[in-house]
Amino acid sequence: MKLFTIAMLAISAIVAFNACEDDNKPCSNCPDNDLISGEYNPQPYNLAVPSFFPPPIIPADNPLTVEGVELGRRLFYDKILSADGTMSCATCHLPEKSFTDGKAVSTGILGIAGRRSSMAIVNLAYNAKGFFWDGRAATLEEQALLPVEDHIELNESWPNVIEKIRNHADYPLRFRKAFGIDRKSEITKELAVKAIAQFERTFISTDSKYDKVVWKNQGWFTDEEERGKMLFFFEESQIVNHPGCSHCHIAVFFTDNNYKNNGIEDVASLTDFPDLGRGAINGNVYDNGKFRVPTLRNIELTAPYMHDGRFQTLEQVLDHYSSGGHGVENEDVNIRPFPLSEQDKQDLIAFMKTLTDTSFVNNPAFSDPFK
After folding, report:
1. Residue 185, pLDDT score
2. What is the Cα–Cα distance from 367 to 371, expressed in whole angstroms?
3. Which stretches within 93-222 are classed as H helix?
4. Low-confidence ranges of the chain (pLDDT < 70)
């Protein structure tokens, strides 16, 4: 009787196995492990923008939703995007440093130092002129694709990342809620970077002291800050030769997002820059050594400065600009020497510190969801 029972169990197992393995007939009883069950009802994300800011640039094929932003927030902080699970986007973009990392140049999972400093991620929803220091990515979606497969950054492949996401306990349902997909196999790198871009477009900084005084009529600048403001915008300045800072760092964003040679390299010709910058992307030799003008919002928090992090302090930055560059033929027209006293420097720095937005860097909506 015992042998009969064992035999019957074995026959039953073989029959069940064949029912699921028959190549000619679909298995009606086998679970569909690719299917994602769950509601798809995305809610529009309310991006709060004050009246003194223009409408943000939101692509029609990637509108902001609550579900998409939250998915992007998780992907931004998740080390699953790196080959060894030790780094995420946030490793080089820390909220308390206005989404920089405080290093001259960033290093990836292999410990290899890059050539450039991590850029601040502030008000990027208003930039239509390209991303990275050299503008090699036209959109935030394109920008988010590149660090994953960069050998000196996350050093992973997108197929591996997507496989990890598809097999994750939580992500498939989140992708369904954000993008309405029905199956895990529909999760793609394109959807992943759409979510990351949605999250990054919410990084809106509009509540610095400058914003409060100038736009919201709340409080006053100190005498030092007011003098610095005049120098910055070249308002009634007694320094006749001072070109002002606002030619490139234009309010309200304190950048024009253009690419310029700001005179930091002393080279013999346009082909001798150690980093060609924009010129390496568009092939225009006159754009060699040009880099995107960074925002000065939260500049107090984003040292060291310049695309290669060569200056540790704002005093050093001002010393450079007052020296007037090196006369390379494609230097910006406003790079020329001008006198700057110690008091002038302190006044300018005091004004630049009014661009610090503590509510931005402490916003819980931008924080690590895994902590």
Report:
1. 98
2. 8
3. 140-149, 158-166, 171-179, 189-201, 209-210
4. 1-28, 235-241
> Whose CA is closest to 57, among 126, 141, 118, 135?
126
Query: What pLDDT is recorded for position 235?
Result: 59
Which residues lie closer than 8 Å to 322 by C-beta, 6 or more apart?
337, 338, 339, 340
Contact 45, 203 (CB under 8 A): no
**CA–CA gap between residue 222 and residue 213 (Å, rounded):** 11
**Domains of the chain, earliest start first:** 66-204 (1.10.760.10), 209-357 (1.10.760.10)
Q: Rounded to whole angstroms, how far apart are CA atoms 353 and 346?
A: 10
CA 108 – CA 154 distance, rounded (Å): 6
Q: Quick one: DSSP state of residue 170? A: S
**Contact in structure between 207 and 215 (CB atoms under 8 Å):** no
Picking from 278, 357, 317, 280, the residue whose alpha carbon sits closest to that of residue 120 is 357
Query: Quick one: tokens of 148?
Result: 């994953």
- Number of neighbours of residue 129 by Cβ within 10 angstroms: 13
pLDDT of 10: 47
The Cβ of residue 175 has, within 10 Å, a number of other Cβ atoms equal to 27
- Kindly state the tokens that stand for 126: 């208003």
Rg of the chain on CA atoms, in Å = 26
What is the β-pairing status of strands 291-292 and 259-260? antiparallel
Both tokens assigned to 37? 């069950």
Identify the pLDDT of residue 30. 76
For tokens 């035999």, name the residue: 7
- DSSP E strands in 249-368: the ranges are 259-260, 291-292
Q: Which residues contact 34 (CB under 8 A, 6 or more apart)?
A: 183, 184, 185
d(CA 350, CA 345) in angstroms, rounded, equals 9
Q: Is the peptide bond before 147 cis (omega within 30 degrees of 0)?
A: no
Cα-based distances in Å from 218 to 131, 207, 210, 221: 34, 11, 9, 10
Q: In whole angstroms, what is the distance from residue 20 CA to residue 30 CA?
A: 6
Distance of alpha carbon 321 from the chain centroid: 27
pLDDT of residue 106: 95
CA atoms within 13 A on the CB side of 157: 3
Q: Is residue 42 reached through a cis peptide bond, with omega within 30 degrees of 0 on the bond before it?
A: no
